[in-house]
Amino acid sequence: MPWSLTVGHVYGTAVRIHVTFLLFLVWIWVAYYRQGGTGAAWEGVAFVALLFFCVLLHEFGHIFAARRYGVKTPEVTLWPFGGIARLERIPEKPSEELVVAIAGPLVNVAIAVLLLLYLGGNVGVEHIENIENPQMGLVAKLAAANIFLVVFNLIPAFPMDGGRVLRALLALKMSHAQATQTAASIGQGLAVMLGILGIFGNPMLIIIAVFVFLAATGEAGQVQMKQAAQGLLVQDAMITHFETLGPQASVGDAAEALIRTTQKEFPIVDGAGHLRGVLTRDAMIHALQAKGPASSVIEAMQGDVPTVGARAPLDRALKQITESGAPVVGVVDPSGKLIGLLSAENVGEMMMLRAAQPDARFGPWAKRPAG
Ligand SMILES: [Zn+2]
């Protein structure tokens, strides 16, 4: 994820902080400084830092629960609105998703209980309202914040944990895709209500509402994409008309091809028809600036481009594109010759066509040799 700094690794998960979170800390410092000077400013920042440590523990609740089901978590990022752990995949079994989603809020329940027990043991619950000791005040505020985190995260809308809990519960009764669609619609409805509340109340709510609405739309779209790809083969979606460059071609030749066509990625193919690599528009421009038009495309290309067979399932190839981060995937025949290209973009185009004509079976995007 761009715009975030890695601050460390915990059990193979990179802990990252988004730049906007650092700006948020600065904003907190300034806001408290204007109220109560330097002392108050640092106290405010200390509270927010402790609070986000609780958020991080919450994320590790999800991460360790996911690990139980063999799902790895490459990274967790702290944003001003909370933490997001990027799971390698969401467990599709509803009961497993339920456990993973609920594990985070349960961590905050545990923290709140521990803090309240500590407070109760030290000052007596009846005195909590008028605590003089500033250290006790911080503990009480932190306990209250953890309770808020539990309530906020259980709002039944994506990307909050409540949205996933809702989807998992719905998925016990219907298909995963249907459950996502229903949960996303409920989330969008909630977002609209939050937005209206925000207009009359706290403007911060409007920002949260927009964010929740977009997240719900994105979640539904991802599942639609996966569904569209299901049951289709790579050959149904691959690009078959494209220009290739030989290994001896220069970056200048590539630049001419870029102008001549609408292609943005050019496969480098050797005499035997085998894919050697892919030259992207960005790499081409970079090579032109750094080494000039006479330099070789072999030096500028990306070499380790994944390949799939034309009759491989499209959803598996789609996964390969997202996981490898490669601009395109090469489609090869059984002898290893390049016969097509597949990009997230053209799979997306096919998805739009299918959405426009859900029952079409003989469209150009769904043709398949009989048998
Ligand atoms: Zn969570």
Automatic annotation (TrEMBL):
It comes from the Bacteria. Signal peptide: none annotated. One of its GO terms (biological process) is proteolysis. InterPro entries: CBS_dom, CBS_dom_sf, Peptidase_M50, UCP006404_Pept_M50_CBS. It holds the Pfam family Peptidase_M50. PANTHER family: MEMBRANE-ASSOCIATED ZINC METALLOPROTEASE M50B, STAGE IV SPORULATION PROTEIN FB. This is Zinc metalloprotease.
